[in-house]
Design a protein that fits this description.
Helix content: 55-70%
Distance between the termini: 47 Å
Shape: flat
Number of helices: 22
Radius of gyration: 30 Å
Structural class: mainly alpha
Number of strands: 5
Low-confidence stretches: 1-13, 19-23, 410-422
Strand order of the largest sheet: 4-3-5
Order of helices and strands: EEEEHEHHHHHHHHHHHHHHHHHHHHH
């Protein structure tokens, strides 16, 4: 590697080991190496200092906040990059000359410029205002194609206001029954643009836009589920707007297997508790409990958050207690879920045991909850969770003394979690 201010003698020229009848090392010519990584350049570009770098490496350099040339250390007047076609052709010819041992470096796609992004944005906005469905579709497809070429293009579109125009477009065509394909395309692009500003939110949360979003949600559109979740997390006022849309509760419960909808339900119950009864009527508890059976940690976290929110109401606690799978699942997962999930899990168990008639405490004991909760205390948990665990243990201890209960659950609990005393 070359040190700052070093000489050519300090450079270690990398080599490529090729496979064949005999092992040989292929030395990469220095002019084909990126000065940052010393690897063969795939997309050589020239910056303002006149030095050529591989585009990916120099972009990471600039994105880290640097405004200098890595080699000369001079401050650059501009961070623009110009493709070095001459070097790229030489690299390609060199790769071909080396035969099948090296892949030919493909011709890179040139990233879009801010000017191009603004031009597409302008055409889409003009077509939206005219109600020109065909041109809007063309611009959406073009944006999709360019965005899929690179993350840099997505960032360029986002930085140049495309997100707001897409929100305007969605709102404008939301009542158009024949614009489904266009709106589906807009939804996909909007997943690249979040978070959007207040003006964009206003367009997406209008009555017509929310109604259309709910329609897509009913059909299982994952992009719609993601956008609804994002909108609800941005502003509590959006929860109240969405709750007024016909069919939204059915749509969210129907799409609950998408974790985005699970999060949206949590936001709605938390911000508007009166929605809990409607969700319960639609079988929310059964659906959520089923998701806990074999889901990964991130989904378990969301499902337990929903159950905890449901248990804030008497009606919710009654329905949760009535589900035969709840306590076995909670006890089974005490030591198997993330710290975030444990907080919700303990809260659910505490709520249904504290307000129950004692049968919940007995069931928890029979399933081996006592020992697992002791382990949780030993391992350590948040202060609020610690208080609930302590209270649960006291409830169980009282029950055992009053009823002569003997804990015969599996004693091979994961005591490996216990902290060793020094």
């Amino acid at each position: 590697m070359r040190r700052r201010g070093g000489t050519k003698k300090d450079i270690l020229t990398p080599a490529i080991t090729t496979s064949g009848k005999e092992e040989e090392e292929m030395v990469i010519p220095s002019q084909f190496q990126c000065p940052i990584s010393y690897d063969l350049m795939k997309d050589p570009v020239i910056i303002a200092s006149g030095i050529t770098y591989d585009r990916e490496n120099i972009e990471k350099w600039f994105e880290s906040g640097n405004q200098t040339c890595p080699v000369t250390n001079t401050v650059l007047a501009t961070l623009e990059q110009t493709p070095n076609h001459a070097i790229r052709r030489m690299i390609q010819e060199w790769c071909v000359a080396k035969g099948s041992s090296l892949d030919r470096v493909p011709t890179p796609r040139v990233p879009i410029t801010s000017h191009q992004a603004i031009e597409i944005c302008g055409k889409l906005l003009s077509a939206t205002r005219r109600g020109d469905h065909v041109v809007c579709m063309e611009m959406v497809e073009k944006t999709k194609r360019l965005g899929q070429e690179s993350e840099r293009n997505k960032k360029c579109f986002k930085a140049n206001g495309v997100g707001l125009v897409l929100c305007v477009c969605f709102d404008a065509f939301s009542e158009n029954g024949s614009a489904s394909e266009l709106l589906e395309g807009v939804l996909l692009l909007l997943t690249w643009m979040f978070p959007v500003g207040a003006e964009g939110q206003a367009n997406l949360t209008s009555t017509t836009s929310f109604t259309r979003l709910v329609g897509f949600l009913k059909s299982g559109d994952q992009n719609a589920a993601f956008l609804v979740k994002e909108l609800l997390s941005l502003d509590e006022a959006n929860v109240h707007k969405l709750a007024a849309i016909n069919g939204v509760f059915d749509a969210l419960v129907k799409s609950i297997r998408d974790s985005s909808s699970l999060t949206s339900i949590f936001h709605m119950i938390s911000a508007k508790p009166e929605t809990t009864s409607r969700f319960l009527e639609l079988g929310l508890v059964n659906s959520t409990v089923e998701m806990l059976v074999d889901s990964e940690n991130s989904v378990c976290e969301k499902a337990l958050l929903v159950l905890d929110a449901v248990c804030k109401s008497n009606e919710g606690r009654t329905i949760v207690r009535g589900n035969e799978l709840v306590m076995p699942i909670l006890v089974k997962k005490i030591l198997k879920v993330s710290e975030v999930a444990k907080k919700s899990l303990v809260s659910v168990m505490w709520k249904i045991c504290k307000t129950g008639d004692g049968t919940e405490v007995e069931e928890a004991l029979r399933l081996g909850a006592f020992k697992k909760l002791v382990v949780m205390l030993q391992v350590g948990c948040g202060e609020g969770t610690k208080e609930k665990v302590t209270e649960l243990l006291k409830m169980m201890n009282r029950y055992m003394k009053m009823n002569g209960f003997v804990d015969v659950s599996d004693s091979s609990i994961e005591f490996k979690h216990l902290k060793r005393s020094s």
